[in-house]
Amino acid sequence: MSGTNPFDLSRHLSSEAKARVANPMKAIWKLIQQQPNVVMLANGDPHFSLYPIRKVDFEVASIENQDPVKSWTASRLSARTLLLTSSSSNRSALPLNLGLQYANGAGRPEAQRAAAALTQFYHAPPDHITTLTLGNFDGITKCLRLLGEPGDKFLADEFAFRAVTNAGVPQGIEWISVKMDGCGMIPESLEEILVRWDEGRGKRPHVLYVVPCGQNPTGSTLSLERRRKIYEIAQLYDLVIIEDDPYYFLQYPSDPNDSSLVPSFLSLDTDGRVIRLDSLSKILAPGLRLGWLTSSAAFHEHLIALTDSSTQHPHGFGQVFLAELLSEHGWGLAGFDRWVSSLREEYRRRRDFFLEEFERRIGGSGLVNARAPEAGMFVWIRVNIEKHPRYQNGINAGDGAAARARTNVAQLMQELFMCCLDSGLVIVPASVFALSGDSVWDDSAVPIEDRVYFLRATFAGTEEIMRKGLEILANVLQTFFAE
Amino acid sequence: MSGTNPFDLSRHLSSEAKARVANPMKAIWKLIQQQPNVVMLANGDPHFSLYPIRKVDFEVASIENQDPVKSWTASRLSARTLLLTSSSSNRSALPLNLGLQYANGAGRPEAQRAAAALTQFYHAPPDHITTLTLGNFDGITKCLRLLGEPGDKFLADEFAFRAVTNAGVPQGIEWISVKMDGCGMIPESLEEILVRWDEGRGKRPHVLYVVPCGQNPTGSTLSLERRRKIYEIAQLYDLVIIEDDPYYFLQYPSDPNDSSLVPSFLSLDTDGRVIRLDSLSKILAPGLRLGWLTSSAAFHEHLIALTDSSTQHPHGFGQVFLAELLSEHGWGLAGFDRWVSSLREEYRRRRDFFLEEFERRIGGSGLVNARAPEAGMFVWIRVNIEKHPRYQNGINAGDGAAARARTNVAQLMQELFMCCLDSGLVIVPASVFALSGDSVWDDSAVPIEDRVYFLRATFAGTEEIMRKGLEILANVLQTFFAE
Ligand SMILES: Cc1ncc(COP(=O)(O)O)c(C=O)c1O
Ligand SMILES: Cc1ncc(COP(=O)(O)O)c(C=O)c1O
């Protein structure tokens, strides 16, 4: 999938990325590659005969059954398993002696190829290269370093995964929020910001961070139509799109017989302007700390340079695990697909359970409502806070960022959050995610401070947890609004 | 080992570190910790029943034998092993369901405690906290972010591990080189730089990067006396010391009955100004990508904030491995100590083998000489390039950084390197490591460009590799000098 790219990407790189000096050893390695049988007295690499680890076995779920997640969770300890083994034997997909040696930033070729095969299968991007990461968070923060300059303004959803946006702040990135509705980022709002941009106030944004499926926190999923529009805007205004898509495999289209997944930005990317991030966190386990990033060759080169001079290549056990899992002795690609399809059904059941409980317990109250998310793990609950006896509008609510607020929504929602907590329920208030937009661009009638009347709840837990949680929420809401 | 620290460290932090904004979720987690039995509808954390991994087994070397490395390498596939297992059973030192969940930057407490126990055992630092890292390289680059400001000048050995110094360059760190002799960094040279510092040329350096044992590339080890002097200078001039010590466990004191290890800077650190980095790379396997960093509480706090917003906590398999290995079902601390002691003897044998071959094949030539390193994996070979027929002195050798050179040492050494490569030997020329000092501080009669007459060779390989490599080197040297 490597190759040249028509789109010149270098102007998007940060001066930090451009200032990265090549390791002088690199030139030496290049020379060595032309020399087939060299004797190495060069590097302080312990010889593998001194690694005190002979073999690693991972006992994983079998995917023989048509619905492997169901049998895995139902049969529990008696569920069938498959043993993935790596040793120094060359029957290993990634032999341990190689997996436990130093490697380079992109990852061992065996593991990198396994991840690339997934990308090829699901997205068939025009012309991109895969780099292993330590999960999407690591991948995104590397992109911020690669693309972000102090003072740069980047675009994101107005309710965003704050851990990511916060991570950009110390390096001087400012975030400009794009309006959302129930279907995610509104392309017209994105375009408006760019059309009306006044260069006198700083460089126009050149990066858009977007979570296309089951967005965190709103649970919204961008339709193909919106994706196309956003991509066109990106072409028009020369944006790089960071596509953070950990919930890609967890899509629940309204027609349950429709098993298709919405095409990713990557799959539409003829220009090489999309950097896509995939993660094993939500589909296998978050503690694996493994994911992969797909980008144009030009970005790839800078990414591995950055990786080589920061985290270095991902951990050997994870790479071995990935390579073995996707090999013919493991799940293979077909088995992986069966697992994620089955997992999708499992989460769809959980989502439906959540929504039924929600409807049954609080649906009739008129105090809250929620729409069924088409992907991910989150339900975004609209609290009809305007019905609260102490709700106020047309006031001057605070100073600092809150100066624009004309209501006491933020304060009431904070009270509601504390009431939940006091009753033993943790649910996340929207204020945690609200990107306080630059008011110069944000002339909407209602500033975000007055629209934080949402709660983020997850259906990732067990039925027991959901039942208990929603019971508490119902009680708290009754009391809180009945004041 | 936590506690307050008398030394105010905050002035050493970069503005980037200080600008890091707290994740608003953190405040919520604080509240939750006061609430014992909460129902969590908060986070998108997959439930562990959905992780398709039931068990992981690591087959590691047994440490029952007194000299476990010897029996491991001698008996190879028939060598005795020990099985480390982690599952969701609570007999696991770090159960897999916890190890594979999201955690925080410092690492799971079980693994963090295991690393802290090693630090306590070997260094007994006055008042420090341990944070897990992805190996020393990751740890150092995080320290650079934590302490470095664009334009800052940091101190390092004049021949340094360039991957580290280069990593600081894109963020604007400039390196000032400190003179070395066969015993490593010269304390008097360090002091001279600081005494003579002219603030008009920029802020005085506040960070010293040092590799105290088996320095890469020179193989030198700082004596306890030098360490004390350097620490005193650090106190006087308020330096933070980054102690990068991957070769700590590979020390070969001249008296083979002396099994003591030179005390680390950390063990001397009453002020909290030492940040020490330990790695599993050289003693277990580099692909593990796991290490730990020991610092004062004030630095620790900023480190985990940085980790939480970049790499995130280290991979679960590695943490599980470390926790199990050091548990009573694994090697335990005593077993670990036996392994590293035995490994030390193994590398001492390799070093001695290397030096004997070196002496036998080229020792008499008068063209090169080398001193026996007291730690690590490297021999620093002095090439007596002055004996080369084309050696020139008192010339004007080049422009740019090389303008200070008065000899053609750099050019001849490059030729020698290429001759080695053409004959099938990879050995690293000193120019790769030479930090071109700021000439204003460096008024030594002979600039570093004229002192790159060294080659770095490693004895980490097998005897076969060393024998072949030194044979080639001997032949190349004869031909090269006989021109
Ligand atoms: C939108 C989004 N991006 C990234 C992440 C982090 O993913 P990873 O575990 O792969 O770093 C999360 C996790 O909650 C998320 O919701
Ligand atoms: C001095 C020094 N520091 C750090 C490292 C890298 O260590 P790690 O593998 O723990 O990142 C090396 C590896 O060669 C080294 O020689």
TrEMBL record, chains A, B:
Pfam families: Aminotran_1_2 (PF00155). SUPFAM superfamilies: PLP-dependent transferases. GO terms for biological process: alpha-amino acid metabolic process. Keywords: Aminotransferase, Pyridoxal phosphate, Transferase. Its cofactor is pyridoxal 5'-phosphate. Residues 101-467 form the Aminotransferase class I/classII large domain. Transmembrane segments: none annotated. One of its GO terms (molecular function) is pyridoxal phosphate binding. Belongs to the class-I pyridoxal-phosphate-dependent aminotransferase family. This is L-tyrosine:2-oxoglutarate aminotransferase.
